[in-house]
Automatic annotation (TrEMBL):
It comes from the Bacteria. This is YlaI family protein.
Length: 66
């Protein structure tokens, strides 16, 4: 199965029997990211988290009166 990274547009070949290939084939909303881009994003996120400037925002639902 041919796949293309959503960030760097590098094309790669995946085996058809792997779980990732099955997930991409059966659920088109999932996108593929190459290992280099995934590692780069992971490293930068860990560096931001270690700096103390990283915050996760949780959105709270507003209560509706019915």
């Amino acid at each position: 199965m041919k796949v293309q990274c959503v960030i760097c547009d590098k094309q790669q070949e995946l085996e058809n029997d792997t779980p990732l290939a099955k997930k991409l084939r059966n659920r088109p909303i999932h996108t593929y990211m190459c290992e280099e881009c995934h590692k780069r994003i992971e490293d930068k996120t860990k560096a931001r988290f270690a700096s103390g400037q990283f915050q996760l925002y949780s959105f709270k639902r507003k209560k509706r009166d019915f």
